């Protein structure tokens, strides 16, 4: 009995045809789940006593720093607890209405992003006054009217100055300090802080840098995709 002769070229074609379905499956199931790099976590971390399994290997869980719950008044004198129970991504910054340094520039950036993502229910923007003694809800509302900084997904918050300073330092990991040379001046960060729905800090972005604001815009999209994928996987 004579067997058919196979040339090297024919063998390679046959192997390619047989291997292609397996390669395609691997691309869709393994590579398809990691099309972008997840954002980092900021703040102190701890190894938990619990584990999760990945490809048959037990990996210790990590406890990440989270922002504590807090309640502040908004510009309409309504008490709001943050984070609200809506599982939303948040962009938070600290400012005050009497600021003469960079607050206007910072809130212009927040206004731009809030307007851009106004129809996205996953996002909320929160600006917290560090000058609670002056920035009453009425003052915040007047600030909105004067500057035109207003969006349905952006709220201004105010509270007792010591509480806000503690919140900034302990939860958001940014400083708020009185200026000893200027009684009406408060030293605070120009950073916008990105939080995921689990209240974990996922990024800091200098509002005075165009490149940093472009990075925040890009990473908002990454975090939105990450959250949507997590919800789909549940």
What does this 3D model show about the protein?
The strands form 3 sheets. The protein has a 7-stranded mixed sheet, sandwiched between helices. The chain has helices at 8-29, 103-116, 137-147, 161-170, 210-233, and strands at 45-54, 57-64, 70-74, 79-82, 89-95, 123-129, 154-158, 176-178, 186-188, 191-195, 201-206. It is α+β, with helices and mostly antiparallel strands. Strand 8 (176-178) and strand 9 (186-188) form a beta hairpin. Residues 23-34 have low confidence and may be disordered. It starts with 7 loop residues before the first helix and ends with a helix. It contains 5 helices and 11 strands.
Question: What's the short story on this structure?
Answer:
The chain is an alpha+beta fold. Helix content is 35%, strand content 27%. 27% of the residues are buried.
Strand content: 25-35%
The helix fraction, in percent, is: 25-40%
Spatial ordering of strands, largest sheet: 4-3-7-6-5-10-11
Output mean pLDDT. 86
Element-level helix/strand string: HEEEEEHEHEHEEEEH
List keywords for this structure.
11 strands; 234 residues; alpha+beta; globular
Layout: helices, strands, pairs:
Elements: H1 8-29, E1 45-54, E2 57-64, E3 70-74, E4 79-82, E5 89-95, H2 103-116, E6 123-129, H3 137-147, E7 154-158, H4 161-170, E8 176-178, E9 186-188, E10 191-195, E11 201-206, H5 210-233
Parallel strand pairs: 5-6, 6-7
Antiparallel strand pairs: 1-2, 3-4, 3-7, 5-10, 8-9, 10-11
């Amino acid at each position: 009995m004579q067997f058919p002769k196979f040339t090297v070229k024919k063998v390679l074609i046959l192997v390619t045809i047989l291997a292609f379905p397996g390669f395609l499956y691997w691309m869709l199931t393994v590579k398809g789940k990691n099309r972008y790099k997840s954002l980092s976590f900021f703040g102190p971390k701890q190894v938990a006593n619990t584990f999760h399994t990945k490809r048959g290997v037990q990996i210790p869980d990590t406890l990440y720093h989270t922002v504590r719950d807090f309640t502040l008044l908004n510009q309409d004198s309504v008490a709001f607890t943050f984070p609200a129970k809506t599982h939303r991504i948040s962009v938070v910054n600290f400012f005050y209405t009497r600021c003469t340094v960079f607050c206007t520039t910072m809130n212009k950036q927040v206004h731009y992003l809030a307007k851009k993502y106004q129809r996205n229910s996953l996002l909320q923007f929160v600006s917290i006054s560090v000058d609670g003694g002056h920035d009453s809800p009425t003052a915040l509302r007047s600030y909105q009217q004067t500057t035109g900084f207003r969006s349905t997904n952006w709220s201004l918050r105010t509270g007792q100055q010591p509480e806000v300073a503690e919140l900034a330092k302990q939860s958001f990991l940014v400083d708020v300090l009185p200026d000893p040379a200027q009684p009406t001046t408060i030293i605070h960060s120009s950073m916008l802080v990105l939080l995921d729905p689990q209240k974990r800090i996922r990024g800091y972005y200098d509002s005075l840098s165009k490149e940093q604001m472009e990075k925040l815009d890009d990473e908002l999209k990454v975090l939105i995709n990450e959250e949507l994928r997590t919800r789909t996987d549940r």
